[in-house]
Design a protein that fits this description.
The chain is of the alpha/beta class. The protein has one domain: Rossmann fold. The protein has six helices and eight strands. The protein has a six-stranded mixed sheet with strand order 4-3-1-6-7-8, with helices on both faces. The longest helix has 15 residues. The radius of gyration is 14 Å and the shape is globular. The two termini are 13 Å apart.
Length: 161
């Protein structure tokens, strides 16, 4: 089981031809998260495809996350999340349904969730620090530090060791 995965939501604007997921979306948020991922696996939460590895080639589409879609995708996403102890979800700019989907998927997978981000790329600069923090400490031992450096983080401890 791997320690950590980094996830962000998909974006509305896309290239018009298949590409690696992190390049398909034209969102500066996705590129900014990708550039801060270090050696951590990164996925994009897609309204069409579910959890997509950042390097997976996918076709463009036009779908948004709805409450129903989030409910349907959560068990599928949990299958991937079961391979990780901790998930950092960068939620800035994403519809609330993406966060709800991640919360449900992490509960099913028993994966700890650290959700950060607000507005247009708020707290984006904290991603590398949180990655390093979670490489050294358990999330339950990092809560106060994450709360200190991030604005309104959501931390759900689903797995304690």
């Amino acid at each position: 089981m791997k320690n950590l995965v980094l996830i962000t939501a998909c974006g509305a604007k896309k290239k018009n031809k298949p590409a690696q997921a992190y390049q398909l979306y034209l969102s500066p948020r996705i590129k900014a998260v990708y550039n801060r991922k270090d050696d951590v696996d990164m996925y994009i939460l897609s309204a069409k495809y579910g959890l997509v590895n950042a390097h997976q080639i996918i076709k463009p589409y036009n779908e948004i996350m709805t409450p129903e879609k989030a409910r349907i995708l959560a068990p599928q996403i949990a299958k991937t999340l079961k391979n990780y102890k901790n998930a950092i979800f960068y939620k800035a700019g994403a519809r609330k349904e993406y966060l709800e989907c991640m919360i449900n998927a992490c509960k099913i997978a028993k994966t700890n969730l650290i959700a950060i981000g607000y507005g247009f790329m708020g707290d984006i600069g904290q991603i590398p620090y949180i990655i390093e923090l979670l490489k050294k400490k358990k999330p339950e031992d990092s809560i106060e530090e994450i709360k200190r450096i991030c604005r309104n983080p959501l931390i759900i401890i689903a797995r304690s060791e």
